[in-house]
Amino acid sequence: MNSSSDTSTDRIEKQILLKAPRSRVWRALSNAEEFGNWFGVDFTGKRFVAGQSVQGRITYPGYEHVVMDVVIERIEPEHHLSWRWHPHAVDMSVDYSPEPMTLVVFELTDLDSGTLLKVVESGFDQIPVARRQEAFRMNSGGWEQQLLNIEKHVDKG
């Protein structure tokens, strides 16, 4: 079960049913180094701590020059992880810091057949109009791929 609803211009919503216990999925999300393994970012030696920012170099081919920078918003063990970031901030000649950030929320729910992972990224309507549509499009496709990545990751144990 992998579904999405992208009818809004402000938010991307994706979900996937993972055939793994909630504790396993939570570890894949909340342990920064493990998160980086499936997400494609080098968070070696880093931790996700509410209220703190964390940076890591993207390891995805073609984007190795990009540093992912997130500000951890909230952590509720085995249920909720959220952060803020600048969506699709891949042009190194642009200073994205004055722009508003989008909010990314991961939520876990137990189901009989596994763990439902829901990802919602919101706040695109606040992104400068010149790059709003491209950021939305790239992140929408990106979240679809990332849900497949975490599915493969947690299936391995």
Short description:
The chain has 157 residues and is α+β, with helices and mostly antiparallel strands. The protein has one domain: START domain (Alpha-D-Glucose-1,6-Bisphosphate, Chain A, domain 4), CATH 3.30.530.20. Helix content is 28%, strand content 35%.
Explain what you see.
The protein is built from three helices and eight strands. The chain is α+β, with helices and mostly antiparallel strands and 157 residues long. It has a single domain (2-155), classed as START domain (Alpha-D-Glucose-1,6-Bisphosphate, Chain A, domain 4), CATH 3.30.530. Strands 1-2-8-7-6-5-4-3 form an eight-stranded antiparallel β-sheet, covered by helices on one side. Strand 4 (53-58) and strand 5 (67-76) form a beta hairpin. Helix 1 (22-30) crosses helix 2 (32-39). The chain is globular and about 45 Å long. The mean pLDDT is 94.
- Which homologous superfamily in CATH is the superfamily? START domain
**Helix and strand succession?**
EEHHEEEEEEH
Number of helices: 3
Strands across the major sheet, in which order? 1-2-8-7-6-5-4-3
Span from first to last CA?
Answer: 20 Å
The rounded Rg comes to: 15 Å
Give a short account of the largest sheet.
8 strands, antiparallel
Class from secondary-structure proportions = alpha+beta
Average per-residue pLDDT, rounded, comes to 94
| E-strand count | 8
Helix content, binned percent? 25-40%
- Number of structurally distinct domains: 1
**CATH architecture assignment:** 2-Layer Sandwich
CATH topology: Alpha-D-Glucose-1,6-Bisphosphate, Chain A, domain 4
